[in-house]
Structure formats: C-alpha cells, structure tokens
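Lay summary. Proteins are chains of building blocks that fold into shapes, and those shapes determine what they do. In this project we predict the shape from the chain. Here is one chain we studied, written as its sequence of building blocks.
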Amino acid sequence: MILGFAISYVQSSQRNNGKTSPLDLVVRTICQPIATVSNKTFQALAGFLSGAVQGDRYALENERLKRQLDSLSLYDDKIKDLEFQVDSLRQLAELEKTFDRPKVLADVIYYSSIEDRITIAAGTNKGIEPGMVVVCAAGLVGRVQTVAPRECQALLITAPSFQIGATALGYNPSPYGLIRGDDTETLILGFQDDKPPVKSGDIIVTSGFSEKLPRGIPRGIVIGRVLNTETRPEVGASRALILPKVNPGNLREVVILK
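And here is the predicted shape, written in a compact code that computers can read:
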C-alpha cells in the first residue's frame, strides 16, 4: 500500500508539473507494442467475423451492382442504335432532294441473307412495280423483284443474278464495266480490258446505262469501293473485287425510285 501511494504521489506530482513520470514511460514502452499488435489482430478478426456474418448481403449487393452495370451497357447500346437511326433518317431526308423522280419511303420488314432479298412494307398500294430501284442514304440496295398489295421483295446487289452497269469516279474517260453479285459480302466488276482500269480504294457508282430495267437506274448511285483487282490475260479481261457500301443487315428504311 505504501508503495502504491508513493507511486501515485510521484505520478500526480509529475502530471501537475506537466511532465510524464519515468514509471509511465516504462509501462508505455513495454505495453504499447503488445497493445498495437493486439489491436490490429482484434480489428482483423472483427472484419473477418463481419464479412462472415454479412457475406450474403455483400453478395447480393455485388450482384445488384453487376445488374446495374449490365443495364448501363444496354442503355449505351440503345442510345447508339437510336443515334444511328436518327442519322439514317437525316440522310434519307437529304436523299429526297436527289434524283428527279417520284420516291416512296418504306420500312424494311425482313432480310434474308440466304436468298439475298429484303421485304419492304410497300406494294401496289403505293404504286410499286417490279424493276424499280431501291436505294438508301448509303447507296444502291437492289431492285424490286416481286410485288404484293402491301409489300414487295427486292433482290439485293449481292445476289449472283443481279447485274448492273458501273463505273469508277475520278477518271476521264470513265472506265465502264458490268457488276454482279459474288457472295453476301462482295461484288465482282468485270472489264473488257486485259489490264484493270481501276485501283484499290476507287469508289464505284452506277453508270446509268442499265436500260433493261423500267425507267433505268440513275447514274451516280454509290455501289461500293474497290478492294483489289485481278488480271485475266487468258480471256483478255480483268476484274475488280468490290465491297458494297450498303450493309443490308442494318437497313431499316429504304427509298424506292418510281
């Protein structure tokens, strides 16, 4: 007891004088490392127990956040799709000012890559006839093949049976050839020259010489771009592989030239 009172007296005197007693320093030096380690250990243990107890809630929260990210991604895709549609409609509005002939704006309701056809929501009710030209803001799509009262089917330019006169921009005189479908993604432009009169990157447009179709196909409608060329000396001809400008899988609206 006497020792306790003595220690207490020393500590109180030191504190009153604004000092730390030697005994306090010794105790802190010995106990502080142990207390620090113990505190971290208890904090880690508390965190582990908290995670174990609330694991299900954290899992549900994580799943909720994932769903929100997925929804945000879908929202971004929807915005991009709407922007694409708006841009296409603006281009179609500009197309109304070109080609001095009546036009019918209609929706594409079906696309068949196997048959190289699209079905369009316009038929005899809007004066559509077989052979009429189908275009979009990007360029030539195809021509009307069959017509029903309220819809029609158009043969795409990628169909092997589709043939049309074509030429390349930027040449004088212009090189003329006959273009036909090769597969669902490319076209073949043939020339009666043993040396290709076009080169990779050239823009190919309609020549305006396709007189077999009703009212003809106007000159200057974009068809596509030259990918590469090929010489065929054995037959005295050459040809070019063309990448179509129009992607039929993305078509939503088209214009039929009457």
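What the prediction tells us: DSSP finds three helices and twelve strands in the chain.
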